[in-house]
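Bench notes, afternoon.
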Amino acid sequence: MVKGSEKRIAILEALREHEHVARHAWVLDDAAPAAFQQGVEPVVREGLAELADTDTRAHLSALVSRPVRWAARLTPYGRDALAYAHARRPAEPVGPRPGPGERLVELRPAQMSALRVFAALTDELAVKPADGLAERVRSASFSKEANRWQLCLTEEQIVSVAYGLYLHRLTLSEAEANAFARDYNVTFRPSPATRTPTAVLLRPLAGDSDGA
C-alpha cells in the first residue's frame, strides 16, 4: 500500500508534469483521464491544487475553441510541497563495498548480536577474534530493506565469525551458526584426529578440485 504522503507527492508531480506540456498553465480535461481528475480532488481539498471556476473555464474554452469542463493547476503551496519533498528525498542507500581480499557479509540481527558478544570478549578468549574483526563489528551498517547487518570481511575474519557463532551454538542456539554455514560455507567442528574445534569448508571452493 502506498503511504498517504507518497501518494500525495505522486499526484502533485503528475499534475506538474501535465502543466509543463499545457499551453495555458492549466491542465485541461482532454489531457487528464477521469481517474486522474478524481485523484486530484484530495490535494485540492488540502489547498495544494486548485480547480478552475466557471469564469476561468469559459476563458479557457474560448482559447481552445471547445468546451472545457475541468481544469486544474498547482497552487503555490503545492509547489512548495514538491520543493520540500525533493529536498528531503534521501539518496539511494549505498552499502559497504568490499576492498581487495574482502567479501560482503550480511548477518541476521540474531547473528550480529552473537558476534557482538564474541567481539566484546576479546581479552578473555583463548581463540581471539581475527585482527580487525571487532572494528568491523563496531562499524557495521544495517540495511532495513534486507533486515541484515552488512560487513566487509576478509576470509580470516569470516572464519573468525564462524568460530564466534560456534561458541554461540554451544551455549545458546544452533540456528545462527547453521544459517551462517549455509550462507558462507564455513563452520566449526571437532577434528576427528585431534578433537580440536576446527574450521571446515562445507563445499569445495572453485578451483580446489583437481582438473584433468
